[in-house]
Amino acid sequence: MAAPLALAVGGGLFVAAPAAEAAPAAACDTTSTPYTYVVTYQPGTRASAVDKELAAKCGTKIAYYDGIGVAIASSRNADFQQKIGVYRAYSGGKDVASAGAAARSLGAVKTLEDTRSTAAAGDLSAQQWDMKAIHAPEANKVYQGSRAVTVGVLDSGIEATHPALRAAVSPAESAGCVTGAPDRSPAAWAPTTSDHGTHVAGTIAGKDPAAGFTGIAPGVRLASVKVVNDEGYIFPEAAVCGFVWAAEHGFEVTNNSYYIDPGMFYCPKQPGDAAAFEAVRRAVEYSTHHGVLNVAAAGNSGFDTTAQTTDPNRPHPLDPSCGILPKAVDGVVNVSSVGYAGTKSSFSNYGEIDVTAPGGDFGQTPPQGEGPACPLSSVVGGSYGSKCGTSMASPHVAGVAALLASKFRGAPPWLLTRLLEGEADAVKCATTETECTGPAKNNSYYGHGLVNALDAVR
């Protein structure tokens, strides 16, 4: 049998498949539970070669993204990862099943994002303190964004019939990516067990004059790209599918209010993790190279992501190369959260932050009549409710980015990032914020500052 070829790919180690493989020594398992894997190849590897290796090692191809050399495969064999190579294949689903009760990226913050108050009847605009904080109402009077711009909401699906969203959602650009392969049927990208994506979507581009609700960029289009399965997990294969879909359909911006399960951290030098990290890194960078600005939530663990030595979800050591995906990938805009008072939310992660935005805080309660402590937005059933989290901060930034992409058509992601940062309002570290380090215009809590929608359009 030909020896594998080791190549350096994007700073990581990639082990190419042998040119030819003999048939497996033993029959493949046909009865055990199948699990889905990401499998890395040298970019440009032919699909026929991928099919041949997977078949020889008891796997079946679900999808293959030749531009990044990542296959999504299914196998019932317990030793499939070993057959492929432990640095080339990884299954989040198998890890969850083995762990029994792994934490979920949405489930782990359930006490924040699924805590909701139903909006009172009447004009909701008075309750949208988060929009006022970033000057979105003033921006709306100047410019609401272009229909030529699409924001991909990589999340749990969007309720396309919601009064605030039915004019914004683009079915032709939406897809379900939960399996790792895109499915354009409406059922595949509609919400099932979570209204998280619907809430995020409303913040970005919702508009319901009858309810007095308006998001940041109601003039742009939204694409529902469902990456969250019904158990609340976002596995690497779903994220890979989502980023490639965004790249190949010309999205200008994506919002990513999640981390990839069953992390939280992935380490490119560790077995299994290496394949997941590399697959997602390639997909994110592929989208960036195709003109997509990716915005991501910093996370709700309340710690410095640069100082962690252990993963709170999985018992493995961390080194400086490890990171939370997708925000650890170069070029992704990392967003922390502030509450009504404008200071960092108690739950918000910090460390490597680009900008900040309103995500709420139960300890920063608005005066009566100005809304709940958590940002108000659309929820399933055509209703409105509030949720707290960096998941809610991130779409505020994606909405401002959509305004910038509308104003500066064709601007590359690096320029949109620079504009976001340059036009943000500086937030300096308070004397009581002893863990906050850096100057007012670039610190570990607030990055370059609070995004400003009005400055984005004028």
UniProtKB/TrEMBL annotation:
Keyword Hydrolase: yes
Record SUPFAM superfamilies: Subtilisin-like (SSF52743)
InterPro entries documented for this protein: Peptidase_S8/S53_dom (IPR000209), Peptidase_S8/S53_dom_sf (IPR036852), Peptidase_S8_Asp-AS (IPR023827), Peptidase_S8_His-AS (IPR022398), Peptidase_S8_Ser-AS (IPR023828), Peptidase_S8_subtilisin-like (IPR050131), Peptidase_S8_subtilisin-rel (IPR015500)
Active site location: D155 (charge relay system), H196 (charge relay system), S391 (charge relay system)
Keyword Disulfide bond assigned: no
Residue ranges occupied by any Peptidase S8/S53 domain in the UniProt entry: 147-449
This protein's UniProt keywords: Hydrolase, Protease, Serine protease, Signal
Membrane spanning residue stretches: none
Molecular function in Gene Ontology: serine-type endopeptidase activity
Signal peptide (UniProt feature, chain positions): 1-22
Family recorded in the similarity comment: Belongs to the peptidase S8 family.
Protein name per the record: Subtilisin-like serine protease
